[in-house]
Amino acid sequence: MHDIYALQLGRTHIVYSPLHHFTARVNKEALLALQRNSSGIHGGPLQDLANRIRRPAEYPSRPNSKTPSPSKIVIMPTRRCNMRCVYCNFVTDQAHSSTLDPIQACHFIDYALQNLIHNKSDFLHIHFFGGEPFLHHSIVDQIVHYARQNCIRNSVKLRLEVTTNGKFDRQYAQFVGNVFDTVVVSYDGSRAFQNANRPNPDGSGSFKQVSTTLQVLSETSTELCVRLCATDQSVHALPDLARQITDAYNIDKLNIEPLTANSVANSAGLRPPDPYAHSFKPLSALITKRINMVSKLSMGLLTSDKSAGLPVRSVKIH
Ligand code: SF4
Fold it and tell me: Are residues 47 and 77 in the same domain?
């Protein structure tokens, strides 16, 4: 069964199947029985679950027969990066050195716009991702300029977002803050964690430059989101890190993401935080004082309200 997932939750297990339309909480014995042979289950408390698993998977039908029209385009100008985060298994010195041809990206924007207009939609969303997208900022600049002009010409609203490591100078940070609707900066929360986890290629710390970028972006109209990677070493400090970030910068969102286990992070001695042992406890101290909480598992999204001058408005853990 390729669409049935099991997640341990304390002593029980959540079993979830999007294509068989069920979610169930079972004990270990029941999980093993389902894994071993669901078709051999007849009668008993697992009967209903076994019946559901035996039914053919139901794939969603296409919502309509319109021409496909992507309203969101993610553009990756390069896989290269000017940082060497100790947990990154995406970028290496050998990372593919080719860059995106901006003309190709512009053709795709034309295609998306044509289909959006054909389907009477009026909204296009472009997100730049990497590697570090601004490493080749002329590519980003050209695509932004092209998309902006063509959207205006066709009365299509354009939303521009970027995920970046924030390593650029003040002037460019100002430009980014004024042009992009949302800027997501990957930043690990303090001088110590940023310098240790997210160094420059020569081993020096990146805190000073990224902190300056965050300060400049704080003063622009962009929606500013900080994306913090929580490890087993930083998870205990999350309330302090959240406080430091919201005190130092005028952010709209703080997105706390647990480290994804990989061999590079492992060699650096970093592991994902245990979501059950750690995430709720340290965050809840902060949450009860400053924010409302909607909780699921181990990733946090803190939202502050710039306009109201409030430090943090809500937290969503998912
Ligand atoms: S900034 Fe992002 S892409 Fe670059 S090394 Fe760090 S995690 Fe990897």
Answer: no
